[in-house]
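Entry
Fold in token form

___
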Amino acid sequence: MKWNVNEEHAGLLLRDYLMNVVGISKRLLTAVKFEEGKLLVNDQEVNVRYTLKENDQIEVVFPAEKRSELLVAEDIPIDIVYEDVALLVLNKKANIVTLPSRLHPCHTLANGVIYYYDQQQITYTVHVVTRLDRDTSGLLLIAKNRYIHSILFRDQHQHTINRKYQAIVTGLLQEKKRYNILSY
């Protein structure tokens, strides 16, 4: 991830900029420091006590993430609707489990994503932001790293990410009721 320092943030310590301006947690910053990540300013490796100057270019190289033993790469087709350096949006079909579990260890969407990551040389694990049940189809939001996942998780809890559900019903309903279900 990369950021450019503007006049307002010149003079800040790199640590303060990363934690307070871009929202990297202390825990993730520690992981970058001790798990083979890198902090670069203007393509030079620095420590968190570096004092920023206007127009500095900051880059954080996150360390490779440990993947759960349950995640096994499987050549399962995934329908990518949108992708960038931070996000993957998939069109999930019904009747596929999103994440592996004891009951469903294989043939999951996450296993297909891990296969895709391996093909693309993406060293992160699967960070599902908007999980869908096995029988549910729809768009599934996946963060490509811990940092993006933490931001999207926070946004969900602050209700700045909204989900909308639509159900298709066949047959006759016994009773006419309208249900208002809040987005969360």
User: Anything to note?
Assistant: The chain is about 20% helix and 15% strand. The chain has a mean pLDDT of 88. The longest strand covers residues 87-92. The domain at 80-157 is CATH 3.30.2350.10 (Pseudouridine synthase).
